[in-house]
Design goal:
With 763 residues, the protein is an alpha+beta fold. The chain folds into four domains: 1-33; 34-269, Biosynthetic peptidoglycan transglycosylase-like (Penicillin binding protein transpeptidase fold, Orthogonal Bundle), CATH 1.10.3810; 291-412, Nucleic acid-binding proteins (OB fold (Dihydrolipoamide Acetyltransferase, E2P), Beta Barrel); 429-702, DD-peptidase/beta-lactamase superfamily (Beta-lactamase, 3-Layer(aba) Sandwich). Helices cover 37% and strands 15% of the residues. It contains 24 helices and 26 strands. The strands form eight sheets. Strands 6, 7, 8, 9, 10 and 11 form a six-stranded antiparallel beta sheet that branches. A five-stranded mixed beta sheet has the order 2-1-5-19-20, covered by helices on one side. Strands 13-12-24-23-22 form a five-stranded antiparallel beta sheet, sandwiched between helices. Strand 12 (423-429) and strand 13 form a beta hairpin. Helix 5 (122-131) packs across helix 6, helix 13 (294-315) packs antiparallel against helix 24 (687-702) and helix 17 packs parallel to helix 20. The termini are far apart.
């Protein structure tokens, strides 16, 4: 027996020595031929073009790989701990190959009867990802181990971990943890929570299997494992462990997910950069900073989303977008639901869901996150006509229906909705220098890349009237001038067409009223008379001062009702002239371009402002538009509780377009809604009811905490008390204060007459 053990021990010794000799010989042969580590020492990965707001929020990324390089010191401590817990707990102790880990994996594999565990260290993963294939051969494994040892001799532990954090593939085209944090959670790496860090740290083992977008259940299981390892290693305590486990992580499902959503402006930037720098922009890590601001862009995006949601509520539910035949077996039904929802993207906050049951007091649905949500009585009523058993199955709302849900604010109840056909847009700029602060070019860039802010030429409707009224003020009309709200028939020569018999929007006429009241009430018949008073040719030439493309604005009386075409950006630029006291500014959106290291390659500044109209005119026209909000067609803006807002609603012919253009001293904003192929939005859809709420939501956010800034009355304007109905001067007190240009003495009727070139009668 003793001799048998001697033989066994000798055989094992010989085997060990032989194996060691073979490995040593192989290492001696292979080691000198291992790749140079210059790639690691001078790490220059492909980095995409990244586009930011003025205040540093990421809004766009274009490149072959989604990657953002970060320094180790800028990564959260709990992320580094999560990575070590998940991948290599003895990283800071071993020399590249973890002998204890190899033995542990070997024992585990023997006991399990197969290869269940590996023993790759973080350093070995770096070696494999930079230099080797992923084939499972003994030669590749030996090369990997030797490379890991070589890397450990050339780089510090922190340098190796930094390479790993920046280079490892984590699914969804994300390379590195910074890109993954952006893609999965829409935030910078520095801002991720412990729960999010554990989820991300679980991805390297199998990015597809543990992808929280594709496999949320398995991703959750892997996250629990990482959190458990962190607790057992003493990185976190029991309370932190429990809190992280219980936290629901709202994974983002959009393929493009950024801190602020501005895809239409990002695309403008990409086109400009590619035109100048070529394909290098997709790999060189260039950065572009724009004039957008995160708060503004988020408020604008939310405003457009809510505007479309509210439009849908007014138009009625259009039915489910698909039907799913759910198995009776619960497990199989869950799988079918998960597969169906993964095939449908979130569209600007409109989430796909599957109806689990339609009951007497609720509709029960399941979201892609796995959450079950109850829609209450309001949604049952909203979908009432689609609950009938008489409808075709594809139109009926029932178990298995695929629907869309959205909500107005985080925490608000979910509402049934549907993917829109209607489009909406919003743009805002700083009237002082033309810097664009927000741009939403359409409801969803993924569905429609057409930029309605810059490309959509639409009839402006009554939102164009302030420019006509401003021209009339220049010709000697005053806010107290009285015009007749009465029928009018216009000769074809004055319209460029046939005989024109326009009407007011509501079909009603109220007789004589002042210019101020006429604009507040958006009286079409009076607007035409105002244009007649100022003169077609003069008004057309005058309006050109605001920067419009005058070829698209015919010099006919129809100009008074906004029959010409403008883009939302052009309209915002025009309104900026009133907002800043009479100067024309050019919209701009680029601040600077840098290389990946922050070196400035280009910088930009606003073009100088030029005087467009008299400061007195800008002030008086602004007071007219303030009354549109105070007592006219835009009283919906009164909910903001501010006295320094001015603007004008607009509804084009046959309700094809709904507009609101308005401003405060620091912001001009224009909201629009319509169909790409013009058709009626509906008889009740107007600028005040359809577009104004988008503008109000935006202004409510960006002006929160901003003190009121009413326009200062410039020199050369006098205040005279007049009768509000007749416009006649009131002597000895009383009446309503009204504004006049100083060189125009108030006339007997409240109008003002210039010294020469008298105006035609206002009738």
């Amino acid at each position: 027996m003793t001799r048998w053990w001697h033989y066994l021990l000798g055989a094992m010794t010989i085997l060990f020595v032989a194996t060691t000799a073979v490995v040593a010989l192989a290492a001696a042969i292979i080691y000198p031929n291992l790749p140079s580590l210059e790639t690691l020492k001078d790490y220059r990965p492909k980095q995409p073009l990244r586009i930011f707001t003025e205040d540093g929020a990421l809004i766009g990324e274009f490149g072959e790989e989604r990657r953002a390089v970060v320094r180790l010191k800028d990564t959260p401590k709990h992320l580094r701990q999560a990575i070590l817990a998940a991948e290599d707990e003895r990283f800071y102790q071993h020399g590249g190959v973890d002998t204890l880990g190899v033995l542990r994996a070997a024992v585990s594999n023997v006991l399990s009867g197969g290869v269940k565990e590996g023993a790759s260290t973080i350093t070995m993963q770096v070696a494999r990802n930079f230099f080797l294939s992923s084939e499972k051969t003994l030669t590749r494994k030996l090369n990997e181990a030797l490379l890991a040892i070589k890397i450990e001799h050339a780089l510090s532990k922190d340098e190796i971990l930094e390479l790993y954090i920046n280079h490892i593939y984590l699914g969804q085209r994300a390379y590195g943890f910074a890109a993954a944090a952006q893609i999965y959670y829409g935030k910078p790496l520095a801002n991720i929570s412990l729960a999010e860090a554990a989820m991300l740290a679980g991805l390297p083992k199998a990015p597809s299997a543990y992808n929280p977008v594709v496999n949320p259940a398995r991703a959750r299981t892997r996250q629990y494992y990482v959190l458990g390892r962190m607790k057992s290693l003493g990185f976190i305590n029991e309370a932190e462990y429990r809190h992280a486990r219980e936290l629901r992580l709202p994974v983002k499902y959009s393929p493009q997910n950024f801190e602020a959503e501005a895809p239409h402006l990002a695309e403008l930037v990409r086109q400009r950069m590619h035109q100048k720098y070529g394909d290098a922009i997709y790999t060189s890590g260039m950065r572009v900073y724009t004039t957008l601001r995160r708060l503004d862009q988020t408020a604008a995006s939310n405003g457009v989303r809510q505007g479309v949601l509210e439009f849908h509520r007014r138009r009625g539910y259009q039915g489910p977008e698909g039907q799913l035949k759910l198995p009776t077996d619960a497990v199989e039904a869950d799988k079918a639901i998960e597969a169906a929802l993964l095939d449908r993207e979130e569209v600007n906050g409109f989430l796909p869901a599957v109806v689990l049951a339609v009951e007497k007091a609720r509709i029960r649905i399941r979201l892609r996150s796995g959450d079950d949500v109850d829609l209450g009585a309001a949604e049952l009523k909203y979908a009432e006509r689609h609950l009938s058993g008489k409808l075709a199955k594809d139109k009926r709302l029932a178990r298995g229906s695929i629907v869309r849900v959205a909500r107005t604010d985080p925490g608000a109840p979910w509402q049934l909705t549907y993917l829109p056909q209607v489009e909406a847009a919003f743009v805002s700029l700083d009237p002082a220098n033309g810097a664009i602060r927000a741009m939403v070019g359409g409801f969803s860039f993924a569905r429609n890349q057409y930029n309605h802010v810059t490309q959509a030429w639409r009839q402006a409707g009554s939102s164009f009237k302030p420019f006509v009224y401003s021209a009339a003020l220049e010709r000697g009309v005053t806010p107290a001038s009285v015009f007749e709200d009465a029928p009018i028939s216009v000769d074809p020569a004055e319209t460029g067409g046939v005989v024109w018999e326009p009407k007011n929007y509501d079909g009603e006429m109220e007789g004589a009223m002042t210019l101020r009241s006429a604009l507040a009430k958006s009286k079409n018949l009076i607007s035409i008379r105002v244009l007649q008073a100022a003169g077609n040719q003069f008004t057309h030439e005058y309006v050109s001062r605001f920067g419009f493309d005058m070829a698209r604005i015919p010099p006919y009386l129809t100009m008074a009702l906004g029959a010409g075409e403008v883009t939302p950006l052009a309209l915002a630029s025009g309104y900026a002239v009133f907002a800043n006291g009479g100067s024309r500014v050019t919209p701009w959106h680029l601040l600077k371009v840098t290389d990946k290291d922050g070196k400035v390659l280009e910088s930009f500044a606003p073009l100088g402002a030029t005087r467009a109209i008299d400061a007195r005119n800008a002030f008086v026209t602004t007071t007219l538009m303030r009354d549109v909000i105070r007592r006219g067609t835009a009283t919906g803006a009164l909910k903001l509780g501010r006295g320094d807002l001015a603007g004008k609603t607009g509804t084009s012919n046959e309700h094809h377009d709904a507009w609101f253009a308005g401003f405060q001293a620091t912001r001009v904003g224009v909201a629009w809604m319509g169909y790409d192929q013009p058709r009626s939005l509906g008889s009740g859809e107007t600028g005040g009811g359809t577009a104004l709420p988008i503008w109000v939501r935006y202004m409510g956010e960006v002006l929160r905490g901003v003190p009121e800034m009413p326009p200062a009355m410039p020199e050369g304007v006098v205040v005279v008390n007049v009768d509000a109905k007749t416009g006649v001067s009131v002597e000895g007190g009383g009446g309503t204060p009204e504004f006049f240009f100083q060189e125009f003495a108030p006339g007997a009727t409240g109008g003002s007459e210039p010294a020469a070139d008298p105006l035609p009668a206002f009738n």
